[in-house]
Predict the 3D structure of the following.
Amino acid sequence: MLRYITAGESHGKTMLAIVDGFPAGLKIDSEVINTELARRQGGYGRGQRQKLETDQVEFLTGTWNNETIGSPIALQVINRDYKLERLKELPRPRPGHGDLSGSLKYLTSIRGVLERASARETCVRVAAGALSRQLLEAFGIQILGYVTQLGSLSIESQPGDLDYQRSLRNKSEIYSLNPDQDPQAKQLVDDTKSMGDTLGGIVEVRAEGMPFGLGTHAQWDRKLDGRLAQAVMAVQAIKGVEIGMGFEAATLTGSQVHDPIQFDPGSIRSHNLGFKRPSNNAGGLEAGMTNGQPLVVRAAMKPISTLQKPLESIDMKTKEPSTASYERSDICAVPACSVIIENVVAFELATALVEKFGNDSLQEMLARHKLFQDMAAKH
């Protein structure tokens, strides 16, 4: 099973991720990972810290000559803005953060909680996901994340294949599939900033080339949709997850929701084994398993909790009313969130891939994948 743990504080010396269960034999392109780390630091609406950090991944273990060797992989991203020992305690908890609950749970300082709870930790989750997407690509699986809504502003995605849409996303300062709407979106961010407020939004991730049978119906905790939802909800500030049609499905009848099944014998050797759907309302998952259609996952990000015009709070020592403490923060991190969710999803898909086809070596995985495709095509 592929899994990872992360360690480090937002203003500590380093951020670490240890990835266990990764197959041997994959040539790693570190620049692919560094590109994702740079995108995570970008996007319109980010704060000043992103100008201080230039995230670069370092492999400490688990590779030889840029190739995985089957042992645990330790990934490191150095914090250049290291100043943890010099930071003062926050006297007043900030609504929307873990300040109050964490300090009471662990009977510790707010500072000790916020430094670990910070979304800075996601830099190594992105690194682990960007490593995993290189494994996915060896099996013809492509993945793309983008912004579909910023506050109340809905952003209409332009149609096209994944490569074309990626080129659109890379042209957009808010990482949407419609760069023409960037001026409107940027104005919304600027207006929000002038009011001392923050902005949330919705991001979408789509993966194409998915084979049948990743995940399983056999146990509740191994269903791929459940694992994706847990992984995405574990990203800071995410308050809702949809797969496919999502919540809209609850408002429609079954005939409007479920995707008819068709068959094209001419594409029996493709990843979907010739099975076609005129719609994809299920988002590529049925009964906890991939069904050969594109995977579609959507996440709702709440506005950043730290406000330039702080909300009401209390002083932790005196318990007297006050305003919340303020820490340097973003106005809008929805574009960066799309990068995080994209790579978190990539990691979960890679996990399901190694569970289906083994994880000793890439060569063995590819052989098992071909064997499965051949057997399933004759089923």
Notes: The chain has a mean pLDDT of 93.
